[in-house]
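**Backbone description:**
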Amino acid sequence: MNNDNKLKENQEIIFKELPLPEESDKEMAQNMQLLCDNLELILDNADLVIEKPEFFYIRYSWMIIGAAYIGAKYIPLGVLLKLWRSGSWIGKCPDCGGRSYIINAGGSPLSGSHSFNLVCQTCRDIIYCKQSGNFAELMKQAFDLCDRYSQKQKILRTRGPVFSWSKGLVGESVPDKILEDAVKPVSLETLVNELKKLGQGG
């Protein structure tokens, strides 16, 4: 089907994001530590990560920006890299004073108070911080980039059986049909392994 105008009465086009990968608490901790341990490797290969969609769209539940009264968006790795490059999602580690990279944030655009987690390049650890003020700009930049690089499946949905008093259930259940698929990202572990192979000339 190439023309949305030819839809039947019981059909509609919907757009849906791919689900986030499921993680146990242990797997989440392992993935976050994997990012800490390999942050420099990822930064050194930022152009490649941004260029390849299967790398760019790596997302996890802990890569997120949330704003009171507005909602939340999950942030692909490629968007994080762009935010870091802009300098807006860069901070200072409260422990060592080193350059650190924000991986998630949440707060109020009205009061400006917010909290966030940093990856310290020196400590190789996740640092939790709280601040007041300046959250609106932090939020806006992340929301704008997430919207710009949003990618969703285009799906044809056919409504299932409908009830008729005279005939009972009429019609058949029809599974969703993917018209345009979204990029399926690799795991963070796969990315790290691929980048290490490149560094070794593999």
The first strand starts at residue 11 and ends at 16. Helices lie at 25-37, 39-44, 46-51, 53-56, 77-86, 135-148, 188-199. Residues 21-150+189-194 form one domain. The chain is about 30% helix and 30% strand.
